[in-house]
Amino acid sequence: MSEGLRERKKRQTKQRISDIATGLFLEHGFVTVTIAEIADAADVSVNTVYNYFPAKEDLFLDRGDDVIDRLSRYVRGRHEGESAADAVLRELRAEVEAVSPAVGLFPGWADFMKVITEAHALRSRLWAIQQEALDRLTGTLAKEAGAAGGDPLPGLVAGQLSWVHSTLMAWIGDEMSQRREPAEVSREALALLDEMEDLLSEKVLNYAPRAAE
Length: 213
Fold this sequence. Notes:
This protein is an all-alpha fold. Helix content is 71%, strand content 0%. It contains eleven helices and no strands. Helix 5 crosses helix 6, helix 8 runs antiparallel to helix 9 and helix 9 runs antiparallel to helix 10. The model has no long low-confidence stretch (mean pLDDT 95).
């Protein structure tokens, strides 16, 4: 369904407010910048900011919903005969090979992470996002595998795949915080993914293959 004019304007306004807020946070820090200052810089009211972003943390971590659904989306989109783990590993490799900002491979990552490490509220919100992503993935795996209620396997597999994702992201973050070249970090991250895949059991690697249509 095509996006209507009203929806497009709302999306553009939301993105502009987020971009302006992020710029202020990067320059002055998350704690010191107020919602009123963000509203003034964006030429909107404080209420408008809150209408789009219920919490201040949402202004900086504005792609939280996408992160929460990322691994589940990979699993739902797996190819015929492809397991959940194979789909996650394939998609993560594609992001790393493309030197994608989605996995932290961009020059400004060090500055972005500095804002998070200096703000307890952002660190707490990031942890909550990670937990929501794990819960979402557990539910997705249970549905895709047709698991019975109370079956612990979807949660166990979700934990392993979440470990791969979080370890990759943490490693890339550490390397990019040293202001290394994204392409160089990308090459080493691919090797790290290979090492992590070798550590996964066959039971995890073969879980929930997509049946033929």
